[in-house]
Amino acid sequence: MQVALGRSVSDEIRPGLYKVSKLLRGDAGLFLTNMPRDEVESCFNKFEENDFARTGTIATEKVELLEGPLDQFTHEMEPFLRKQGMPVRLNKGVVELVSDFVVCEEGKPLSPESARILRLLGIKMATFRLNLICRWSPEDFELYKEGLDTNRT
């Protein structure tokens, strides 16, 4: 995508697009529209979606499972749950927690195992947002996020 837009003034396809190209790294994308600037900014500022937390995300609450049957899991899940560190066993075909188990503590980063267990439990602890980094039009270029390095090659 960077090559298509142009990496420098000499190879950009439209004036100023090389500045956008420099910002296309990692989890960045392009949003192409004819919508007015204020409407686009409003849409991006309002958009939030609850999502499953990833490894390393800070837990927003303590999640503790109490000893006893875990009816939400089928018997086929028992080996997987055990691999995630949960003290489980099968009792007459029902997955059973042998002792209380703390999945995560509020304010602490999630381990890979905790993140997987939270997903299985259907608990969403993350919020997905889209952040505007910059805006380009044939008339101008505006950088929304100060401190981003647009001079990298």
Automatic annotation (TrEMBL):
GO molecular function: RNA binding
GO biological process: nuclear-transcribed mRNA catabolic process; ribosomal large subunit assembly; rRNA processing
Annotated Gene Ontology cellular component terms: cytoplasm; nucleolus; preribosome, large subunit precursor
UniProt KW Nucleus keyword: yes
Entry keywords, A to Z: Cytoplasm, Nucleus, Ribosome biogenesis
InterPro entries the record matches: Mrt4 (IPR033867), Ribosomal_uL10-like_insert (IPR040637), Ribosomal_uL10-like_insert_sf (IPR043164), Ribosomal_uL10-like_sf (IPR043141), Ribosome_Assembly_uL10 (IPR051742)
Subcellular location: Cytoplasm; Nucleus, Nucleolus
Location of the Large ribosomal subunit protein uL10-like insertion domain: 53-123
Assembly notes: Associates with the pre-60S ribosomal particle.
Family, per entry: Belongs to the universal ribosomal protein uL10 family.
Primary role: Component of the ribosome assembly machinery. Nuclear paralog of the ribosomal protein P0, it binds pre-60S subunits at an early stage of assembly in the nucleolus, and is replaced by P0 in cytoplasmic pre-60S subunits and mature 80S ribosomes.
Protein's UniProt name: Ribosome assembly factor mrt4
The organism of origin for this protein: Gossypium australe
